[in-house]
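The authors assume throughout that readers already know how a fold can be written as discrete tokens. For illustration, here is how one protein appears when written out as sequence plus structure tokens:
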Amino acid sequence: MADEVVKNKGLASIGIKVTIGGTEIKHVTEIPELGAAPSALDTTTLKDKTTTSVPGVQELKDMEYGILYNNKDADSDFRILKGYETAGEAQPVEITFPDGTAFSYDAYISVRTNAAKVNELLGATVTTNPQTGIKTTNPTAPQP
């Protein structure tokens, strides 16, 4: 019983799946925070002793993903993502957690190589510029 409690305290990041433009990105090393708090619209009046506000629009800023760099093959992550950047059209982005929870949105894609350092693998940064809100899809119940 105690092991079950420990197991259910959290979820490891092992197995997170990132799909962009319908293609699974195979060598992801980092994903961004997903979502943003809405801006606060001030409703404070001269009668109030403290500031008050109501939620405004949610401002989704650019989100960056880390990937391992490889451009050797036609199906390499870097080459596919560069193709989406060149096409200049928003692509569907989906992040699926190991428990089946999925986060999806449409975004323009850009990709750049990272600085190179001694004794490190080459990396690249994928920037997504969201064009829609982030939709959360809950996992389905396991089937017996």
Observations:
- Strands lie at 17-20, 23-25, 28-30, 38-42, 53-58, 63-68, 91-96, 102-113, 123-130, 135-137.
- The helical segments are 2-7, 77-87.
- The first strand starts at residue 17 and ends at 20.
- The first helix runs from residue 2 to 7.
